């Protein structure tokens, strides 16, 4: 079948359309953000069970490009793209981790963590970047004058853009806020041959610059205001349901910064509902760092208004964003999914990440924000202990070893409840035995 997709203005009074190979990021008529719209009537000609079987048959297969968790759902993503222009690094298919021990610790019967950081560049951003860079490669093959692809980033977007562009042979440009991302995140685009520009500003400042430089159509914008990114990221919700044997969890909790991931999650789930694969929607919870929480502040006003803020320095550096580009889409999504927004202090997010680590995770600070939000909502009775909950872990903890080292050294600005310092000893058997006896006794008492 010949499926179709296009850009469409999200403004209900406008709904202007553009072909997907158009270099456009906002509606030229009204200035609103765009979404990718699919011909759902055509997609509905294949029934829900057929879609499920097709996706199951492709999942993690060796058939190019359909073994990818994104491109296995190609008809729902970019149906018109030529397979030879797809740039895939076998993204998606990440582990849905049964966090049984952590769930019991906090009083939850069914907790799962979607480990999106177990990916090529170490974050969920791979899901969107495979789609965007593939479409750029397609456009270049059709004669588009694109010389490079650019993004502003707090780390993960730049890493994903750089690695996919490197695989495609396309130049990437990344604008990073100087001194505000981890060393691991800085070295990723450097290693993948990106043109790295370190600006003496914050993310919002980098975003203002990248918007201006991409007015030149030879430099293509890769931030999440480009809805091609959302098309790839929407597969995370679809994949969660697929991994639950096509059953929908009650609650999905996701960290929120620039907020493109929020609307992406909702988009995939709504598409499943509209095509009959599911009959109910989960509640979506967005968790923000208290020092960068403009969406939470708007939520407290029932979304009657939204005011950007100047984000303060937070351990959750990737979501240190005070003026999120995708806020309009995010609020619309939350209203459709009976959404909740919660925030977490620096100590709450750090302790939640560390406690999760003691049960077999290795959490980035942003996952710590989501876990801290879950603990708060359970405590307040806004999530019931019997509900099936999925927390989306957005990045791999190895990107944030400096955060973890400082936590366990007790070098942060607050008491680190779960700090676990190495015990320094002379190289004598008696000293080791004495230390073991003392330490193991303390752990037994702690676990009683």
For the residues shown, what is the average pLDDT?
96
> SSE order, as H and E?
EEEHHEHEHEHEHEHEHHEHEHHEHHEHH
Please work out how many helical segments DSSP would assign.
16
Annotation, overall tally of beta strands:
13
**Which class of secondary structure composition applies to the elements?**
alpha/beta
Please list the strands of the largest sheet in the order they lie side by side: 4-5-13-10-11-12
The CATH architecture of the domain at 96-122 and 230-408 can be named as: 3-Layer(aba) Sandwich
How many strands, which pairing sense, and closed or not: the largest β-sheet? 6 strands, mixed
Percent of residues in helices comes to 25-40%
Query: Which range does the strand content fall in?
Result: 5-15%
Per the CATH scheme, the topology name of the domain at 96-122 and 230-408 is Rossmann fold
The first-to-last residue Cα distance is 62 Å
Flag low-confidence runs. none
User: What would the principal axes of the Cα set say about the shape?
Assistant: globular
Q: Class of the domain at 96-122 and 230-408, according to the CATH hierarchy?
A: Alpha Beta
Q: Round the Cα radius of gyration to an integer and report it.
A: 22 Å
Oligomer: single chain
